[in-house]
Design brief:
The complex is a heterodimer of chains A (176) and B (185). The N and C termini of chain A lie far apart (32 Å). With 176 residues, chain A is an alpha/beta fold. Chain A has helices at 3-11, 43-54, 68-77, 90-101, 118-123, 135-140, 153-164, 168-173; strands spanning 15-18, 25-32, 37-41, 59-63, 84-86, 108-111, 126-129, 143-144. Chain A is built from eight helices and eight strands. In chain A, the strands form two sheets. In chain A, strands 5-4-1-6-7-8 form a six-stranded parallel β-sheet. Chain A has a two-stranded antiparallel sheet with strand order 2-3. Chain B has a single domain (7-182), classed as Rossmann fold (3-Layer(aba) Sandwich), CATH 3.40.50.1000. Chain B has 185 residues and is of the alpha/beta class. The radius of gyration of chain B is 16 Å and the shape is globular. The interface between A and B is medium-sized, with 27 and 33 residues.
Chain lengths: 176, 185
Amino acid sequence: MNKADAIEKAKKVKYVILDIHGIMTDNTLYYTQEGVKSEAFSLHDRLGVKLLTEAGIPVALLTTKISRADEQMGKIYGIPQERLWGQGAKMARVDQFEAETGIKDEEICYAGDEMIDLAVMKRVGFSVAPSDASHEATAVADYVTAAGGGKGVVRETAQFILQAQGKWDQITEKFK
Amino acid sequence: MALEKDLNIAKEKATKIKLFCHDIHGVLTANNIFCDIEGNRRYGFWHMDGFGDLSFMANGINIAFLDTTSIDGEGLFRAKELKLDKFYYSVTNKMAKIEELKKEMNISYEEIGYLGCEISDITPMQKVGFPVATADAIDEVKAIACYITKANGGRGAMREICEFVLRAMGKWESWVEVVTKKGYK
């Protein structure tokens, strides 16, 4: 990971796509005694999403299947339903997105942590992995966050992008 | 105690397996129970361990949960989510169950792998061809394992051993390609 390169790449970002499990969650699925599944998200990331959105950089979530928990978190984070993408074939979903919007690979930031994310991480302009991602993911990432999954990865990524683009001070002013 | 493992021997043994067995707590979980003030309990499972189990099955290696430790059926919830066909709940005698599976699948001990962490795992691990211990297993278990994962139980041990085995078999790269194109479900 070369920080100067990462900053150059982050400057071009217009759209952020995030994997959910291991990025916005701490990799753990909690089952209650009744068999109800739940996950732990970070409130730091809520601010991260809001800062990016405020700066005109939309955030989308891309995972194999969007659960009701993901929908609920979408509401809390302020990510609209149409940007919750449930599809296992992630490359195909990014192809579709680019065809619809005209946004290019180098204008996309993608955060992933696993094998299923590697192809997308390699094609986009700015790829991010949490510190506790699989070693394959941290090896290809342009930027590896200090935070582990579910512990503020999105907040940190947002700060990195907005500082690279020189928008940080202006955007955060509104949240002070 | 023999905690230094010969990777080449482990790889050689890993290439032979057709069945991989493990318990629930301490392997798929970090041995934690979360209990709220009303007494409601919940259990944490490492998300990508599911990828480990699914990857084994997709590559022709059967998975058997030999659940001796579930309290509320949490192992069952996890097995259902992964759509496992070999799930054994409330197993009292792991060795007898392994014998049964061995006969049913018509395989030898050499073709069985096992991921363990506790006293109850020692007997099966002494028998099977590819015994593996989690990083936080007890020393007796680590001593008889031919490989020790870097990850603790409930922190990706299953994901790690899956990659180790499929790499040893030379199947990992092609599997990753499939997963990348189609997703893993």
